[in-house]
């Protein structure tokens, strides 16, 4: 050991080196060749007192000179250098792999793309306090329902303070919760609990109008200098004609005389919903402040209400009549005029893009994308709707709601279903994300208007089309419209009561909507004994169970999320399409019968399909697992089949005109990753 070689004095002072690993005295002697005295001098650490000496710990280190002596020798240097360069190479390789993976990876889908959007009509979802009207605590009690259905995004209709003339779409205070629905604390609790459970909350946002009870309107009527131009005012008086022929969406003139101010104000909806003047920069700033208020609270997105109405032409000229010969006094409905001056005005998209830019500030928080959907019924003018998608450089809404499938009942059939789907797919700007709506609080329930037998087929189509499906509460169990007598009527305008009846949770009193008192603001549908969540949860073949399985499959199977969508066939009865992903073995053929007759579908001309097809899921559970030859696929009216098959032969390369893809990606099976292609 080194100690033996060291001079005595040194040995005494440096017993600390004893046992230091790798300390080979033979080498030491051979290498230094210097005389012991010199070595002693250089290796000595000056320790003057015994006390200092005792404080030294064993193995505290090796004198620098000794260390250097050995470290330069080949047997230490070479491995060290090898290790060093190996580390450098590994780091570089890791960096290269990381960069390649990032460069090759397609963008991840965001939460609003992965899950359907579930619409809660708050008044009707769940009443926690027994006053007959649904509330925020009610929703909180039912959050597990969304988890059961594999739903992550929940849009809640307005809960702002409101006189409820249009059930919350007439807002008295944009920064408060109406006591009927709960308190701000209830909202905070709900939001926290939703986030806990991985759910996202989308709020209704109403930029077009306020309630006539809003503070701003009062100040505007009073000609307060700051608020005078917050609304659209025009000269008129009680007796003289209205400023022009414009009509409200809910019928009759969109002008109402206000005797306090002595002028008419514009309202594109109820007279209790005066239109804001969004041309006034102060009004725009108010809207932006409200956006910030809710996003700062943590709300995950907005459904922008009635956006096509937010600007009107300042010249206030008459709108052209659809029938020029109709006497002007008979011009009373929305359908009597072309809305050249009250909808989709120049500047509308600039405004929405401005709002979006404000929202995007919050989207920069990692994992916290803030979502925007817009509501605009443009009927035949699909290009107007598509404008809300923005441009490649200017973001607007993530999607404008696609209402075309609401027209399915008009002509229910295979080719009509394809026509409506295609209206969106062929007109949607490249690279955008589709979405599908089959019902909402303004439209008859689809199972009533299309016919109850089609609800499963409709849900199946909804959940297998590309893009984001929207589900209006109750569609997952096949709820239908209620019949309303005159005395039960609640909706002052278009009578939208039938589709707003209480959610059917179970077979108990009030269908479980309100289990405290016997009050419900609208009657419960009489079918609630069988059509309810609890009963359908227990039944594997129920509308609800099918919705769940379809949604689970949709989210776990890549071809549904990111794959191609290709038309296969559309006739009087059947609409058939497939979903496939490049590099992915599993593909899905959908055959859905929207007709009135049983159909035998012959797909033998489609070479890319295998000869035999196995049913993974039918809307009629009896047919699950059934094997069909592709030349003879049998479906009953209202039946949908999902057939899974395995192949690497792709349909889309041979039929580009029949196929669409959003967020294109390819799959590499060997390492189970998606890559850009
Ligand atoms: C939207 C809402 C509707 C409301 C109207 C006015 O269309 O969906 O319910 O009555 O805007 O705010
Ligand atoms: Mg307006």
Automatic annotation (TrEMBL):
Subcellular location: Apical cell membrane
Major site of localization recorded for this protein: membrane
Region ranges (Disordered): 1-43
Its membrane topology: Single-pass type II membrane protein
Gene Ontology cellular component list: apical plasma membrane
Domain Glycosyl hydrolase family 13 catalytic as annotated: residue spans: 119-554
Source superkingdom: Eukaryota
Pfam family, one: Alpha-amylase
Keyword field: Amino-acid transport, Cell membrane, Disulfide bond, Glycoprotein, Membrane, Phosphoprotein, Signal-anchor, Transmembrane, Transmembrane helix, Transport
GO-annotated biological processes: amino acid transport; carbohydrate metabolic process
InterPro entries found in the cross-reference section: GH (IPR017853), GH13_cat_dom (IPR006047), Glyco_hydro_b (IPR013780), O16G_dom_2 (IPR045857)
Matches recorded under SUPFAM superfamilies: (Trans)glycosidases
Positions of transmembrane segments: 82-104
Quaternary state and interactors: Disulfide-linked heterodimer composed of the catalytic light subunit SLC7A9 and the heavy subunit SLC3A1. The heterodimer is the minimal functional unit. Assembles in non-covalently linked heterotetramers (dimers of heterodimers) and higher order oligomers; the oligomerization is mediated by SLC3A1 likely to prevent degradation in the endoplasmic reticulum and facilitate heteromer trafficking to the plasma membrane. Disulfide-linked heterodimer composed of the catalytic light subunit SLC7A13 and the heavy subunit SLC3A1.
Protein's UniProt name: Amino acid transporter heavy chain SLC3A1
Organism: Nothobranchius furzeri
Encoding gene, per UniProt annotation: SLC3A1
